[in-house]
Design brief:
The protein has 110 residues and is mainly beta. The chain has a single domain, classed as Translation factors (Elongation Factor Tu (Ef-tu), domain 3), CATH 2.40.30. Strands 1-4-3-2-5-6 form a six-stranded antiparallel barrel. The longest helix is centred in the N-terminal third of the chain and has 4 residues.
Length: 110
Amino acid sequence: MRSSTFRALISLGPAAHDSQGRDYPSGTRAVMVRASSPRTAYWKYFEARIERDDEPCLRHDDHEFVTITVTDDDRAATFFPPGQHFTLWNGQDIGTGVVSRQVFTSGSPS
């Protein structure tokens, strides 16, 4: 499994407040990140852990930089280069984001 961590600017809409996702111990929400490969039109969903720098919980109508970690058998990092737009999803679209920079990639493909 590979783990990719990147910084991104996210914007959460009002639906994020009403979503029923589970909380992580850090207070962040369990969400999926949907992105397309920059080289193809192929879309993929990734389970994501989102962490804020200053407060533990994400709030609706937030617009801020966060750290996002995704884990995947494939090369998740290739879906999240700087400038890549993505959607936050929790049974419905709850926000959008854009990658500012990749922070770390670990592991090797299975």
